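User: ok so my PI wants both of these folded by tonight, can you help

Assistant: No problem, let's get them done. Here's the first:
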Amino acid sequence: MINISLTETASQFINNTFVDIYRAKNNMENTKEHWEKVFDTKTETEVSWFQPYPKTSVEFINLFDLGKDKNIIDVGGGDSHFIDALIDMGYQNIYLLDISAKAIERVKQRLGAKADRVNYIVSDILDFKSSIHFDFWHDRAAFHFLTTEEQVDKYVTIAENAISKDGYLVLGTFSESGPTKCSGLEIQQYNEISMRKRFEKYFERIKCIEDIHTTPFNTTQNFLFCSFKKFT
């Protein structure tokens, strides 16, 4: 009886594991399909997150006075104009990561002759592995799409592994006064305390601000931006 019980338990565990893996894979495929469709069917001014100039993000990178040769990554940047600003500011080692290949193609087309100044990565952030260590990790409105503990923990671990010693992390998410959805998807709102707790194991909080973003539809969204420095 004991052997049968153990066998049944092991079998159930294996079955549950395969179900979890299948669901996770299916969710990632659905997420990629969602964003490919968004960037295939909407222009940049038809999405709520559009900014002609990323003022807040630029102010944060200026806060740290980084050398122009430092490695900088924009995570989930889509076709954000932050990349344009980094090029114009003279940064030489710029990386753009997004799950959508169509979003990255739009950036390349917009940049034209400047496109070869950027390194492009098509990947879900939760699948991201890098041999490069980044001195500045920027994420405006990608992190808040992670709504489970497992996803958030994995993101934090990936960021910790990818950011260099004394490197910086800047995250922008919807605040508790902001929307509860974006592009039809559920998001996780944050306040300064909840954001700090997510990263306090590996990072020291530097500065948090609330920022009001005006969308192309003349509505407003309340963001929380927090910056951190990795512990040495």
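One down. Here's the second:
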Amino acid sequence: MSPCAGITQAGRRCTLVAQASSGMCWLHDPARADQRHRHASKAARSKGNREVAALKEEIKTVIADVRGGDLGRADAAVMIQGYRALKDFIALERQVKETDQLAAEIEELKREYGAA
């Protein structure tokens, strides 16, 4: 088994085992770039989706507590403001991840085509 012919982002030779057909590992094989992108996109979204689902459940609890008289409206309003801030940070985090992924893909393309 031969090592991958790819170069890491740190500029070193990749140490993973190459696939015989391409001479590259799964992470560096250009033929698998679309597949890697789809996997990365799903991974980036999955954490945010769990956080959004958790926030949604907490907000439903706040609403139920207000309706049941267990939580005052003023306290609930402050909590909802906090949830909105969390929601905004989740969206920001997702945008940053997407931007970082795109930047990495652009750099990879530049290296592959000798533009860098």
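Residues 33-112 form one domain. The chain has two helices and no strands. Good luck tonight!
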